[in-house]
Design goal:
Helix content: 40-55%
Strand order of the largest sheet: 3-2-4
Number of helices: 5
CATH class of the domain at 45-152: Alpha Beta
Radius of gyration: 18 Å
Amino acid sequence: MAGEINFSGLAKIILKKEFYNRIIFDGYPRTLTQAKNLESLLNKYNQKVSCVLILNVDKKTIIKRILGRQTCSKCGSIFNNHYMPSTDLNHKCGRNYLVIRSDDNEKAIINRFETYAKETLSILDFYKGKNLLHKINGKAEIFDITKEINAIIASLQT
């Protein structure tokens, strides 16, 4: 099924000593079942989830960010018409290489929100109950968000 994790591949990564308790998941798990399966797999290999980060951003801001997103098909740089537009100073490839993802449209965004509300929100309670959830103001400046995330990660290493 599309979007499902390959557990045998994940187990191979988890078993690598250089990744022991050092794996970052981005956008996974997305359902409570996936969260519980991940926890079971990590427990099997004597590992754990150390923290879960959630960037809190309102729906209006997310829609604006997604609808303004552009990616350079040549260099892979990401820009946004509203927040960080491509210019001659920050992007040498030229505007003709900028593309918009096919699913960056309002209908797809609304569908993502509905899926998130139906399937993903329950994960937050699951990790909050385990005292692992850290909520971050996703509307803050990138520097401030990065600083907060770095502080959370640093606190885990003590």
